[in-house]
Amino acid sequence: MLEKLKHKKLRKKNALLFGSSVMIGVVILGLIASYILFDEYKEYKKVVKTDKSAGQITHYLNEDDNILQSFFYPHFSYDVLNTKIEEIVEQYKQDKDNNYIHHLDYQSSVIYDQYYNVRFQYRVLDKEEKEVKKTHAYINYDAKENCIMNVDQVFRLTYLPKIVDVVGQQVQRSITKEDLSSFSLQEKQVVFYIDGKEVVLPYEEYKSYIALRNTEIPSLAPLDMTIEKRKEIDPSKPMIAFSFDDGPNGVSTPRILDILKENDAKATFFMLGQNIEKHPDVVKRMVQEGHEPANHTVSHKNLAKLNADEIHEEIFRTQDLIFQTTGVESKWLRPPYGEISDLLRQITPIPLLLWSIDSLDWHSRNVEKIKEEVLPSIKDGSLVLMHDIYGTTAQALEEILPVLKEQGYQFVTVSELYTYRPDLKPVNAFS
Ligand SMILES: [Zn+2]
Questions:
Q1: What is the Å distance from ligand 1's center to 318 Cα?
Q2: pTM given for the model
């Protein structure tokens, strides 16, 4: 009897418990439903998935009494790209005007499994949902090179001024390279975003200006080039840039490349277009081994005596030959005989560069004399002029390099020299 009663009581207790749980559940569901149904700002917390084909959608929500920050941004499997995205999102997080709605949305895409593109749109609205601020941010990432891209990686340095002109004409004002920072790479074209307008440049139409290296994108760049990784340079140790003019030559240039390799040395080669055409394999090897290719005109004409069209032909043709052969853009022009006219200074698309020590190898063609010209004058930051078309130059180099190496010098390219010695003014260079 007593047992039965106990059971009855227990059952009653269980029923009560069950009943109240259901009640609580209903209340919670009700709360959620009302939150969803009556949240006046819910549209800022919803995401449109159709224009986000690359990356994982991430949501940041900060809902204080006085502020709503609802940010959508992508996450990728690339750290460099994620860091850049987080930098941008962090800036928006700091933008905390009270009583406002802060909304970040984006579009993302990837083309040819290599170029990732994210376009952010950031808006601030007041409580009446009137837009008070709207900005955009653009990221382009090259997954093959693992780097955030700027316009220099899309168009060749030599032709950037032309791209600046073309885009400037379309937006009807004069612009600079800095105005070209907002762009996205699409399947058939690059699109610049400027003054609220979109300027479309199809790859095919601008083929010879394009620096991108991808089989799907028209460009003059060869796709079979890989460049050896550079051994670290120690900026605290002295450095010298050796430069070789007038080549390449089929015999002495390969020998000089061997000598440079034996001595862990990198150098710069100011080449003639007509010789690049004769020895493309030597040029490829040179660049693959980490040396810098540079421009010395097509045929060694005195540029100071030429008119604008002739100068243009000598410079641009050699720029194209270097790029077509190596995929690398020459950053320097050394005018033959060191002759510079005002016209040349005005129209050169790349800086003019001479030298600080002349080995006079072309004049003496004598190993001992070359050594006498070079060794006593060498100091940190020297830029030495030699010619890779003489056997005597190769022989002198073979004897000079070990001596300087023993003295602690590092042998660098011209561009490396000016990167690590920014205080050093390039010799007779004008940009
Ligand atoms: Zn020369």
A1: 14
A2: 0.79
